[in-house]
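Field reference: "sequence" (input) and "structure" (output). Example, Nucleoside diphosphate kinase:
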Amino acid sequence: SKSLAGVKGTETERTFIAVKPDGVHRGLVHKVIERFENRGYKLVGLKAVVPSRQLTEEHYADLKSKPFFKGLVDYMSNGEAPVIAMVWEGPDVIKQGRAMIGATNPLQSAPGTIRGEYCVSVGRNAIHGSDSFESAEKEISLWFGKAGELIDWKRSGSEWVISNN
Ligand code: UDP
Ligand code: MG
């Protein structure tokens, strides 16, 4: 079956983007959506989730040995605000999404990036984006594993946004 992250390097490539609880409290959901929509990317999945500790620990499994891991899992999963989980589709969306988000530490995020515009602390950096095709596959299946949660559709006017000629 087709990968949940689409086909790498084509216009069907997909990435997992999430506004984290601090970003939700701060009213940044619409700003994140606006940037990806304006760029020309297509929203194919969206939901509010309070992730279980187990889901959060799986999502961040590569960071399990880090000193900030427990605090990170607490703030993601304690339910003080949901995570707004999204899947975005389009050309090079995984790498471009990371560039739009900015460096992990907002004090190193370039002005104009989401973190560089709205954040000052690595522990409250507002947004997540998959860092590779393999991460996108893992994260989309973790957060959107159920059939029917991702929608295949054609954006009106997409011929004015994407062409290979
Ligand atoms: N994080 C943190 N302290 C650190 C590094 C990371 O609290 O010193 C948190 C932060 O929320 C970050 C997340 O852990 O977004 C995942 O870290 P990663 O290195 O994967 O950064 P990202 O992919 O989010 O840019
Ligand atoms: Mg990461």
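The beta strands are 14-19, 42-49, 83-89, 127-129.
The chain is about 35% helix and 15% strand.
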